[in-house]
């Protein structure tokens, strides 16, 4: 009986370990939505990607070049994000992981407030000094923030608004890993003030408790949509 119980405990631990490994991959949707197709012949999108015959796989399916080179920063926020997800590395399909390289301009280069609806992010600073943080959900809305130096690591939980800012006088670089092959990104300012079409001014004015003119000014920073 004792031996049986011992084997049972070992089996339970093994199954728990396997379960944790399985759950490390994408647990659900890896796109914003997946509308069921009434006619299968018209179905062109799937929850993920169609799979290539494994016999036809080549090294290039699992490779991305030039991740070591800085991007050219042209955004007004002063940062550029280079992704390494399933769109760039087809071999990531179904593996539940991806990466990004982020370059920040000196003196305030920012990866602006955003969320990843399908992934937790873990970031390591390669060069420079970053102020980073995320905000917890309602009703606390607590800001959890930290100043990071070269080699420091920080975690942004799935779905929470977070940002990074270069507070140094030299360029900064970070690498982040995400727990989805297609984590998605929602940049808060773009989503709220640059939606297509725009969210009505009176709705945003009431939500932010400001004058309509302020909303008009913010929406004017984005191309007008029909």
TrEMBL record:
Disulfide bonds join 34-51. Its main location: secreted. One of its GO terms (cellular component) is apoplast. Mn(2+) binds at residues 114, 116, 121, 162. Residues 65-216 form the Cupin type-1 domain. SMART domains: Cupin_1. The keyword Cell division does not apply. Oxalate binds at residues 111, 116, 121. It is found in: Secreted, Extracellular space, Apoplast. The keyword Disulfide bond applies. InterPro entries: Cupin_1, Germin, Germin_Mn-BS, RmlC-like_jellyroll, RmlC_Cupin_sf. SUPFAM superfamilies: RmlC-like cupins. GO terms for molecular function: manganese ion binding. CDD domains: cupin_OxOx. This is Germin-like protein.
């Amino acid at each position: 009986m004792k031996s049986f119980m011992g084997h049972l405990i070992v089996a339970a631990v093994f199954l728990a370990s396997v379960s944790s490994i399985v759950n490390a991959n994408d647990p659900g949707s890896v796109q914003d939505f997946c509308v069921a197709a009434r006619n299968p012949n018209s179905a062109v999108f799937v929850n993920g990607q169609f799979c290539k015959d494994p016999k036809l796989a080549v090294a290039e399916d699992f490779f991305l070049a030039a991740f070591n080179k800085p991007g050219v920063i042209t955004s007004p926020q002063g940062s550029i994000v280079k992704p390494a997800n399933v769109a760039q590395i087809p071999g990531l399909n179904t593996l539940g992981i991806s990466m990004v390289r982020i370059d920040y301009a000196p003196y305030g280069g920012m990866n602006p407030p955003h969320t990843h609806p399908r992934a937790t992010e873990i970031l390591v600073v390669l060069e420079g000094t970053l102020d980073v943080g995320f905000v917890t959900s309602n009703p606390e809305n607590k800001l959890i923030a930290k100043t990071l130096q070269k080699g420091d690591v920080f975690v942004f939980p799935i779905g929470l608004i977070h940002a990074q800012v270069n507070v140094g006088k030299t360029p900064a670089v970070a690498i982040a890993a995400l727990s989805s092959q297609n984590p998605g990104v929602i940049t808060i300012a773009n989503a709220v003030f640059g939606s297509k079409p725009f969210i009505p001014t009176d709705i945003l004015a009431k939500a932010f408790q400001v004058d309509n003119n302020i909303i008009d000014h913010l929406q004017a920073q984005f191309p007008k949509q029909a």
